[in-house]
Amino acid sequence: MLSELWNDAAGGFHPVSAPDFLPEPRLREVQLRRLKAVVARAWAHVELFRARMDERGLTPDSIQRLGDIAALPFTVKTDLRDTYPFGLFASSMGDVVRLHASSGTTGKPIVVAYTREDVDVWSEVMARTFASCGLHRGDILQNAFGYGLFTGGLGAHYGAEALGATVIPISGGNTDRQIMVMRDFGVTAMCATPSYFTHVIERAGELGVDLHTLPLRVGVFGAEPWSDAMRQRIQQDSGIKAFDIYGLSEIIGPGVASECAQQHGLHVFEDHFYPEIIDPETGAVLPDGAEGELVLTTLSKKAMPMIRYRTRDITCLIPEPCACGRTLRRIRRIGRRSDDMFIIRGVNVYPSQVEAALLAVEGTLPHYQIILVREQGLDQMIVEVEVTPEVFSDKIRALEGVRARLAHAIEHILGIRVELRLVEPRSIERSQGKAKRVIDRRHI
Ligand SMILES: [Zn+2]
Q: Which of 24, 76, 329, 414 has its CA 20 to 30 A from that of 111?
């Protein structure tokens, strides 16, 4: 075990991070070798992939350079549903040691599989994630990601153990107990969805626990898009450093990419996941720096290789090298998920845009909801946002001032008028996991 071989000091370098710093030519060599192997494996064992390769007249030998990946067919989410439950597996069940499944919002979930080696790779990339966020042996991690079929809980769990940290597998929910454990166990780091952590901050305040005085110093947050404005709020209100991590079950779970101490883009663990940015309309590969849809290929997955999986996440690859010295390319934080987008009066709107506008105005709390309704054939967008007790108890004029500033901020970003409702603290439902930001009542 890595943790037995190494006792990493605070701020030191953990050997698990070594691949983050591979010289670029060596990294590209590793990628090409692994790409050839994974394509050969998928071709030999996954019927759907082989059929699509045949249609294009391609074989595993068609991959001679990294750029040849652009000729390969995409994989999309419906491929996983259409082959439910095990149709994309490249290993026999005898070699599969774990299954996870996504919580399907409609119909059947998607199922993902791991061999022993896959689980080890997952632990490795999560250990690298935590190291990148400044965790080390001796840290006490409260893991509030949900345990179960969702990949968050177990992914973070094994990664933190591989790093040598102490894990508290508390899972999500029961906020009072979370706060008691955090205080009594001397917790130094926490994994959660950012929206759940804002609830923890709020509840701690109600219980008279000042998070600034606790040893808690790092938050490792993911599983939903969150804005920089939300990060500022969280860091201010809790005194921790809040890091963004990225992943998805179809690829491995959490552990695909992580921020480093620079908090400026997320390094993709490129030796295991090959990133491309494509034009979502044409499918053409775009150069580094251009915004488009993130496409990922698993370079080392055995049980369920994913070739050119379309994530629906909109971002770009940051071309400049990072000050931390990692050679892994970074993706810009995901603010937009094409699945989250809604269209109102012809305008494309992402919840994160609304969030950024709301939190830029003083007097608001990081709890909001967007409600879409249709009135007399016309779509209306209602934004409910909680405001501080001070604003709420103040004279009507103060409330009106905040409302006007918010309306202006949103109108400025979206170019459309919205109805703003300022509501009292605690009036919007809190989530234990991913927050439900948008309620669409237009088709009811
Ligand atoms: Zn960096």
A: 329
Q: What are 214-255's pLDDT values in tens digits?
A: 999 999 999 888 999 999 999 999 999 999 999 999 999 999
Pairing of strands 241-248, 218-221: parallel
Q: What is the CA(52)–ligand 1 centre distance, in A?
A: 37
Could you tell me the distance, in angstroms and rounded to a whole number, from the CA of residue 133 to the centre of ligand 1?
10
326 CA to centre of ligand 1 in angstroms: 6
How many angstroms does the Cα of residue 242 sit away from the middle of ligand 1? 15
Whole-model pTM over 0.85: yes
Q: How far is the CA of 333 from the centre of ligand 1 (A)?
A: 13
- Beta bridge partner(s), residue 73: none
Q: How far is the CA of 265 from the centre of ligand 1 (A)?
A: 8
pLDDT of res. 105: 58
The alpha carbon of 260 and the centre of ligand 1 are apart by a number of angstroms equal to 5
> pLDDT digit string (tens) for 263-292?
999 999 999 999 999 999 999 999 999 999
The two structure tokens encoding residue 297: 């290929």
Query: In whole angstroms, how far apart are CA 372 and each of 42, 67, 411, 439?
Result: 43, 43, 16, 6
Ligand 1 centroid from CA 114, angstroms: 29
Amino acid making up residue 47: E
Beta strands in 358-416 (DSSP E): 364-375, 378-387
Which residue's structure tokens are 């998607």?
110
Residue 101, token pair as written in the block:
């499944």
